Amino acid sequence: MANRWAPPYRPLDPAESPAIAAAGALLVVHFWAPWNGSDRKYNPALISVRDHFGTRAVFRSANVDDPACERVRAQCQVVNVPMVAGLLAGRRLGAMVGLRPAVDLATLVGAWVRKTRPVIDPRWRTADAVGVARGIAADQALDRLPLLGDALMDAGCGDDHVLAACRGPAPGWWVVDLVLGGG
Fold first, then answer.
1. I need a labelling partner for 140 at 20 to 30 A (CA). Which of 72, 129, 168, 170 fits?
2. How many domains does the chain have?
3. How crowded is the C-beta side of 93, counted as CA atoms within 13 Å?
């Protein structure tokens, strides 16, 4: 049986989308399909842009064949893959369809980033907060999110949306990703 390819970044969990929107974070979604060979070729550009904007945007992937992604597919008006779309406060900012060079993608995501406010204040990225976030990511240990919330509070975070994501019922991966600077 052939290996099924998937992007090397976290898949979109529809349960976390409302928390990302409420926090005012920019959500950048790469829509892809396992049967589309072009998506694999897009990875270097996407990873480069994600690494550059990782502390200012939440990057996720969405398989267009996954029924759980139907709502976000419709919201982003997906017509073809690969496609990258930006969402802010649950509203579509724009999209780019087809294989594009990293510079084009960076220009588009940069324009979206300029419309947002930083969700994670750089002062909150203390050694303790980053260390807890690294441990959560390495061990896939969402049960440690309250510890991340405590570390962020100790660093001066008073953002209710960020802290609620560390303590609430919805997955708080987006906070982990923004603290670590990637998605």
1. 72
2. 2
3. 22
Residue 56 sits in the same domain as residue 85? yes
- Domain of 27, in residue numbers: 17-113
For the segment 37-84, what is each residue's pLDDT rounded down to a tens digit? 888 888 888 998 988 888 888 999 999 999 999 999 999 999 999 999
Please check whether residues 59 and 109 belong to one and the same domain.
yes
Asked, for residue 96, whether it belongs to a domain, the answer is yes
Q: What is the pTM of this model?
A: 0.78
Q: Letter for the amino acid at 142?
A: L
- Residue 92 forms beta bridges with which residues? 87
Instruction: Encode burial over 143-175: b for 16+ CB neighbours within 10 A, e otherwise.
Output: eebebbbbbbbebebebebbbbbbeeebbbbbb
